[in-house]
Design a protein that fits this description.
Length: about 375
């Protein structure tokens, strides 16, 4: 068992770190305040190969392993969690789906520009009536022979406004709950498609989250992804990989909080000494470091299983659950160690705490992760 990154993985991690600290970190707070989508920076990320990390070279990707991919997401999240989730969605939820289930024609048309960073993707599963109960969605695609006519509204779509293409899950059979859902690649230029309300969020404010509205939207038959009725299976499989990306995002946020806590407590003096020397703060920092390392080990195991072609759903759920709860706890402790300053925007820890919360919610809440884990353990 080798716990060390190989030379290529270390090079990728360092490249991502240098880029994130130079191009993302300096203006992350401003983008958060203004809810400004980092379009030009995302373009640069595409040029570095960060938007199609695991896609084969034939289709414009970087053809890396999952361990390399999560190094990039961790480093991006340490600087700007919004940029990290934009990349995670494009990699884990969009490119993965099209590469695995798409036809060669779909890959040529959609995957190549997505993997190379020339286009941006979004993933749309949730609706007002279906969140954790993903099979309860009601957005409907009526088969018209050479096309589908789609009506309904989707919610909570990351990259919803700025994306070019959306991997969208829509009901094609009203009589069958799980096997009545199909996956489609939706070009936002299709008539009858529009972006709805943009959410005003607590955290990850530089990434847009929107509604998508279909009003007699005409989706060509050739944009069906996989077979009709396979959508729910595809969505659940995709979320296993997506949870790896969110675990990495959470770890990056937690590491940033630890770095700031160490820096502040060593510089801040009370009662004639740095507050880092107070045992209460030493214990907090020790626990932060321990939980972050434990999160990484859980994440790397899930990555290894994925790269070996083995089942990794339970392990991905464990990694996502533990890392997201660690991020929320670590950022809260970092704010506490900063005292009153931690509650202001003068220091970045308040942003880290706001960003951390969503990692416990999207791509399956902590409660859903526990259900996934328990059902695997119980063989239900």
């Amino acid at each position: 068992m080798d716990f060390k990154l190989n030379d290529e993985q270390e090079m990728i991690r360092q490249t991502a770190r240098d880029f994130a600290q130079e191009h993302l970190a300096p203006h992350a707070a401003e983008r958060d305040e203004k809810q400004f989508f980092p379009k030009e920076v995302i373009k640069q990320m595409g040029e570095l190969g960060f938007m199609g990390m695991m896609v084969g070279e034939k289709w414009g990707g970087f053809a890396s392993d999952t361990i390399s991919y999560v190094q990039v997401i961790i480093e991006l999240a340490k600087a700007d969690a919004s940029a990290a989730v934009i990349a995670s969605v494009n990699n884990s939820l969009v490119c993965f789906n099209i590469e695995k289930y798409g036809t060669d024609a779909q890959k040529e048309k959609y995957l190549k520009p997505l993997a190379s960073g020339q286009a941006l993707g979004a993933y749309s599963l949730s609706e007002a009536v279906s969140g954790s109960d993903a099979a309860g969605l009601i957005c409907y695609a009526e088969n018209k022979g050479d096309h589908y006519l789609v009506n309904g509204t989707k919610l909570w779509v990351t990259n919803g406004h700025h994306s070019d293409y959306v991997v969208c899950f829509i009901r094609t059979d009203k009589s069958n709950k799980t096997k009545g859902i199909s996956a489609f690649i939706v070009d936002k230029a299709f008539p009858g498609f529009k972006v709805g309300k943009k959410e005003n969020k607590l955290g990850i404010r530089a990434s847009d989250t929107t509604e998508l509205v279909f009003e007699n939207c005409k989706v060509p038959k050739e944009n069906l992804l996989g077979q009709e009725g396979m959508g729910f299976k595809i969505a659940m499989e995709t979320l296993d990989g997506g949870r790896i990306g969110i675990a990495a995002q959470a770890i990056g946020i937690a590491e940033a909080a630890l770095d700031e806590a160490v820096k502040y407590t060593k510089a801040r003096e009370q009662f004639g000494q740095p507050i880092a020397k107070f045992q209460a703060n030493e214990f907090k920092i020790a626990d932060m470091a321990m939980r972050i390392d434990a999160s990484k080990l859980l994440l790397y195991r899930a990555c290894w299983l994925k790269d070996q072609g083995q089942k990794f759903g339970k392990e991905a759920a464990m990694a996502k659950l533990f890392a997201s709860e660690t991020a929320m706890w670590a950022t809260t402790e970092a704010v506490q160690m900063h005292g009153g300053y931690g509650y202001t925007k003068e220091y970045p820890v308040e942003r880290f705490m706001r960003d951390a919360k969503i990692t416990e919610i999207y791509e399956g809440t902590s409660e859903i992760q526990r259900i996934v884990i328990a059902r695997n353990v119980l063989n239900w």
